[in-house]
Specification:
heterodimer; A: 79 residues; alpha+beta; Alpha-Beta Plaits; 3-stranded antiparallel sheet; globular; B: 159 residues; 4-stranded antiparallel sheet; 4 strands; 47% helix; 18% strand
Chain lengths: 79, 159
């Protein structure tokens, strides 16, 4: 990785995002950034740091989409 | 159902936030609509519990490609339409749940070879004494033979 950008905190609501799905997304994007997941009231606070400045696209936004997609998939399986 | 309210609108950044009543839109419907947009927009869902009795869902949308003001407004409208479509789909599935399950069960049982008609099974033990080569109705007799026989009979009658 080159010069990493400052850390970003994304708050994902616990009623709408599953922790397992967030972890899965974090694993998928591990080579582009570092992720720390913590509970913060009704949200999961995901601290995204060391974001690769050369990564193609918006890593944070793509991560959020990925976490949402995996949540949907997991909830669908549960039904 | 009421249309989602545009909470924030920022065409310069190509992003907006829509607000929906939690009581009006079930989570499945919200997920369904978000899923449709996930390939062309960055979607972030949130919930604002401070507003109203049940709270609101907040849908943050940002186009993956740069969007103008008109595109962004169109996207807001499309999201509202998709919510309605998903709600209707959910209602239809619920109403036809039993039929869907029955059809699926029959299809799976049929594919597994387990579901033979009951009358077929009941008749399996019957033996009418016929071999598979027997032809009591004369179905296997060639047309020429049948025709020739009749013709010969006709010739005899004529003579």
């Amino acid at each position: 990785m080159g010069e990493a950008t400052a850390a970003v905190v994304v708050r994902l609501h616990r009623a709408l995002y599953m922790q397992q799905a967030i972890k899965e997304a974090a694993e998928a994007f591990a080579e582009f950034a570092s992720f720390a997941i913590a509970r913060d009231g009704g949200h999961y606070a995901v601290t995204i740091g060391d974001i690769d400045p050369h990564a193609d696209g918006d890593v944070v936004a793509e991560f959020c989409n990925f976490a949402l997609y995996h949540t949907m998939q997991r909830k669908k399986k549960r039904l | 159902m009421t249309a989602p309210a545009v909470e924030t609108f920022d065409p310069a950044q190509g992003r907006m936030t829509l607000a929906l009543d939690v009581g009006l839109y079930p989570t499945d419907v919200l997920y369904g609509a978000a899923y449709v947009f996930i390939d062309r927009a960055y979607v972030l869902l949130d919930r604002d519990e401070s507003a109203g009795k049940s709270g609101r869902y907040l849908v943050h949308l940002r186009g993956k490609a740069p969007l103008g003001e008109a595109d962004l407004r169109a996207m807001a409208g499309e999201f509202g339409n998709e919510l309605l479509s998903q709600a209707l789909r959910r209602k239809i599935v619920k109403a036809n749940q039993k039929i869907i399950e029955e059809i699926a069960t029959q299809a799976i049982a049929g594919a597994a070879g387990g579901a033979l008609p009951t009358d077929f099974l009941a008749g399996a033990g019957d033996d009418d004494g016929l071999d598979f080569l027997d032809d009591p109705l004369g179905i296997a007799v060639p047309w020429e033979e049948k025709f020739k026989k009749k013709k010969d009979d006709g010739d005899k009658e004529g003579a």
